[in-house]
Design brief:
By secondary structure, the chain is α/β, with parallel strands linked by helices. Helix content is 38%, strand content 19%.
């Protein structure tokens, strides 16, 4: 399944960006030079569009057309504004629940997380503009279409989202094995945002320094970590469990 539209050719990508197309990511050929190529690079920086420099073989796999050293992916969704989304959730009277993803790289993990987030009533997912998995056909398929129902925001850096949550009265809880407290000792029935790290390195240490709380899942076997989408599901469903208990007690 591949529903993400690709644009190939330097001039075509420049025109697409200038016309307002929702470009998700651009792949550029390593070592390529030229006036038009430089113009594209400058435009990508100005518009803060994620770009990766790759070997020509990678571009050839993305398309069999004459790509001229540049291939762009158009996102199948429109991204939400973070401030607008947070404000609307706060005004709704519901207890906010957000998900922050620190440069998740696997599109299938991303899709699985989006699916679980939609099932657990997450109000929005926040990702970083650069360095993370794109939303492509595999993401859509793994999410079972949830990507079209889940508000997703992009920020320049995940730190921006952490600070925004904290300024809005929303606690940021990092899921990390470096925590001393387990998930089950962590209060999640208040406004909160759960922060998940990437598959390889986890959460960036500089971000861990600014979160409100850290929590881990107990691991009783010999393997030291869980798949990030599985861990995310455990955190989200513990959040729901705590919130449902509160609802039952209040009734």
């Amino acid at each position: 399944m591949e529903t993400t539209t690709k644009i190939f050719g330097i001039r075509a990508i420049i025109e697409a960006i200038n016309s307002g197309e929702n470009i998700d990511k651009v792949f550029l050929q390593k070592g390529l030079k030229g006036e038009l190529f430089t113009e594209l690079e400058q435009l990508l920086r100005t518009k803060k569009i994620s770009a990766s420099y790759v070997p020509v073989e990678k571009l050839n796999r993305l398309t069999d057309k004459n790509h001229q050293g540049a291939v762009a992916q158009i996102s199948p969704i429109s991204f939400h504004d973070l401030d607008t989304l947070v404000t609307s959730v706060l005004e709704s009277g519901e207890t906010p629940l957000f998900l922050l993803l620190d440069q998740l790289s696997d599109v299938r993990n991303f899709g699985a997380i989006i699916r679980t987030a939609e099932c657990t009533g997450v109000h929005g997912i926040i990702i970083q503009k650069k360095g993370g998995a794109p939303i492509n056909g595999d993401t859509i398929k793994t999410s079972a279409g949830a990507v079209f129902k889940m508000p997703i925001c992009k920020v320049d850096h995940i730190k921006d989202a952490v600070y925004h949550m904290q300024a809005s009265g929303i606690k940021v809880v990092a899921a990390t094995e470096k925590a001393s407290a387990t998930l089950y000792k962590t209060k999640l029935n208040t406004p909160c945002a759960i922060l998940m790290g990437s598959e390889g390195r986890g959460i960036n240490p500089s971000i861990l320094k600014i979160v409100d709380e850290k929590a881990k899942l107990p691991l009783l076997g010999e393997i030291g970590s869980l798949n990030v989408s599985v861990a995310c599901g455990a955190f989200l469903y513990e959040t729901i469990r705590q919130r449902q208990i509160d609802t039952t007690v209040s009734i």
